[in-house]
Amino acid sequence: MEKVLDVRELKVALRRDVHRSETEILKGVEFSIGKKESLALVGESGSGKTLTAMTVMGLLPENMSVKKGEVLLCGRDILKMSQQELRDVRGVKAGMIFQEPSSYLNPVFTAGNQIFEAIKDTSLSVKEKKKRCIDVLKDVGFTEDIYYRYPHQLSGGQQQRVMIAIALVNNPSLLIADEPTTALDVTTAAGIIELLKILMERYGLSLLFITHDISLVSNFVDKIAVMYAGRIVEITDAKMTMDMPLHPYTEKLIACLPERYNSGEKIKTIEGSVPDFHNLPSGCPFHPRCPYVMEICRKSEPPVVKKYGILVRCFKYGMSMET
Ligand SMILES: Nc1ncnc2c1ncn2[C@@H]1O[C@H](COP(=O)(O)OP(=O)(O)OP(=O)(O)O)[C@@H](O)[C@H]1O
Ligand SMILES: [Mg+2]
């Protein structure tokens, strides 16, 4: 299958000015997304999901740097591109939407203006650009009048749809959605997910969907990659993950889902705390929270092994690739 995004052994470090020391945050992230395929990157707060997305967009913060790896977007390594090349690629090959649309929309320009300004094709006339804006507004379920509205005149769900219009106006191959529904109520969130499904079909899009809520994506994406402390610990088909989670962390994420326990019970969360990158546990970073912990888990980091066709990082499944 043709790969739209191929992330290989990506390592990203944070520079800490005081000590001039570096802390590795992304520790060899690997996944790929095929044409028209969708992958959800799932994990608790701080696991490195947004950083992964930002690296793909060539938008790492100043204090972060790539130490290793390749990020092939439509076959070209974005890590080798100049700032100008990145600007040309951004939006055209990959578009991105975020959790808080209000903080990305400019309050003094209309929705239409902001979509118009995002168009990168300089060969289009003003009239053609305007037509493209109206078309993309219709694609996200609006009528033409939204073009002239200011962000404060729009609801959260409508603002997110304007962000989707901006992300899609250049017809990208990949859409990255970073917790796009977290700030919305349940019904509006469901509407955004439905819209994304339709747009994937219409635009032939590939999707990287980031969320901490595995239940949100289990019936919607093709693949799920579970992230823990800067590594992908399990990656396979979404249905497989839900039916037969292999990694103890994935198992816990699923066991904590509201539909898995009776109403009236307290909301469950995974015991223990999310690890601190500056002070990671030895061995497998999940071992202090793991019910299956063995001696080796405290000493060594588990390699990736393949079990039932699933790639997983856990000593429960052995120590090498052959199974
Ligand atoms: N600009 C930054 N400066 C310093 N540390 C950062 C910066 N951005 C992210 N980090 C750290 O890197 C780690 C991963 O952050 P990231 O934002 O990728 O997490 P996330 O999985 O997206 O979490 P969330 O679900 O809360 O959005 C966190 O420990 C975070 O504190
Ligand atoms: Mg994030």
List keywords for this structure.
alpha/beta; Rossmann fold; 8-stranded mixed beta sheet; 12 strands; 24% strand; binds adenosine-5'-triphosphate; binds magnesium ion
Could you characterize what this model shows?
This protein is an alpha/beta fold and 323 residues long. It has one domain (3-93, 172-317): P-loop containing nucleotide triphosphate hydrolases (Rossmann fold, 3-Layer(aba) Sandwich). The chain is built from eleven helices and twelve strands. The chain has helices at 49-56, 83-89, 101-104, 111-118, 126-139, 156-168, 186-203, 214-217, 238-243, 248-255, 295-299; strands at 3-16, 21-34, 38-42, 64-73, 76-77, 94-97, 174-178, 206-211, 223-228, 231-237, 305-307, 310-312. The strands form two sheets. The chain has an eight-stranded mixed beta sheet with strand order 6-7-8-3-9-10-12-11, with helices on both faces. A four-stranded antiparallel beta sheet has the order 2-1-4-5, with helices on one face. Helix 4 (111-118) runs parallel beside helix 6 (156-168), helix 5 packs across helix 6 (156-168) and helix 6 (156-168) packs parallel to helix 7 (186-203). The site of adenosine-5'-triphosphate has 14 residues, from helix 1.
